Amino acid sequence: MKRYELIAPCHFGLESVLKQEIIDLGYDVLKVEDGRVLFYGDEEAVVRANTGLRTAERVLIRIGIFHAETYEELFQNTKALPWEEFIPKNGKFWVAKAASVKSKLFSPSDIQSIMKKAMVERLKMKYKMEWFTEDGEHYPIRVFLMKDEVTIGLDTTGESLHKRGYRKLTAKAPIAENLAAALIMLTPWNKERILVDPFCGSGTIPIEAAMMAANIAPGMNREFTARQWEHLIDKKLWYEAADEARDEMHMDIDTDIQAYDIDPEMVKIARANAQLAGVEELIHFQARPVEQLSHPKKYGFIITNPPYGERLEDKESIPALYRTIGDRYRALDSWSMYLITSYENAQTDIGRKADKNRKIYNGMMKTYYYQFLGPRPPKKKTENH
Q1: Residue 284 CB: number of other CB atoms within 10 A?
Q2: CA 259 to mean position of chain CA atoms
Q3: Which of 385 and 195 is assigned the larger pLDDT?
Q4: Is 323 a residue whose pLDDT tops 90?
Q5: pLDDT attached to residue 171
Q6: CB 231: neighbour CB atoms within 10 A?
């Protein structure tokens, strides 16, 4: 099998979580950069990464990397890349996204059109053709310029990996599925422990937790662009990855995952989404305001995405809401609390400084992941034989 350099983009601030996931899948990490992890893998790795990575945005095959400060350099260097190894004569190819940071070439539309022309020139020469029908499979290209260094990747994923396929209905400001998964992975929570989300919205955090608890691969029920690239990736690899994912699922588990929201309509939506994800039985849903947050057991976890006060009509109620969160958290014996918010006074109103604080970019919005750590539970005594 051919060995590729693969690029997995992710949310800024979550690179270490994605790096660990790639290592756990069994692949060698080449480099970690802002917002992405580069790793080595063959076509089977493309399939398994798309099916199994919880925190990545997508999986790209790196086609080339070069320096360009002028459009002529961009054109010539793009034309020099081996496009014919990837794109067949009838393939539909285009630069789906161009991003530029601290580079002389900064217009996405110009970068896109010049690269497309360069690709056409290369393929004309290689295929001895003057005209391309582009009525075949799709080959979207993504390009990223950083300080005049151009990185070009072929997008194997298509629709972003955070779209697992279960979230048909959403709240006003839903958290992306891959971000929710990363937030859970940044905690010591496991399926033996209690998890409560008092602001569950459309249910993303509890659903992602339940999928982790049951070891359900996030991409097992969705399609990928590269699935149609039979000249590059053997169809049977997709079936084998799906079989592997099914074999590793464990639905017969006991969990204590609770999803609350003040809005009964949201609870209905969250339940419907959990049903689509196949984890409805693993989560307890209830319409309940945060004022009623309580639990008789010790050593549980709150992992949540509370309102930030982004909308003007919510701003006035936010300080009181965070004071209530602090009150309810203090009433829980030996619990840990993890919450993501862009609200600057969160720690003040909660009434406690977070033990850890991580900056994460949720899209373009800077948020903080506040981590209030409770004591570790005592180790379970093992019987001596």
Answers
A1: 13
A2: 21
A3: 195
A4: yes
A5: 65
A6: 12
pLDDT tens-digit series, residues 211-243: 999 999 999 989 999 999 999 999 999 999 999
Query: CB–CB of 140/225 below 8 Å?
Result: yes
Q: Say which CATH topology domain 4-155 has.
A: VC0802-like (3.30.2130)
Question: What single letter denotes the amino acid at residue 194?
Answer: I
67 with 261: CB under 8 angstroms?
Answer: no
Quote the CA–CA distance of 322 and 325 in Å, as a whole number.
5
Tokens of 22: 């790639």
The pairing of strands 256-261 and 194-197 is parallel
Q: Facing residues of 303 across strands? A: 338
**Cβ-Cβ contacts under 8 Å for 224 (sequence gap 6 or more):** 50, 156, 157, 158
Domain boundaries, the chain: 4-155, 177-217+244-372
Six-digit token string for 256: 């204590």
What count of residues does the chain have? 385
Tokens of 185: 């992975």
Q: How far apart are CA 338 and CA 343, in angstroms?
A: 14
Is there a contact between 54 and 212 (Cβ–Cβ < 8 Å)? yes
In terms of Cα–Cα distance, which of 87, 85, 66 is closest to 77? 66
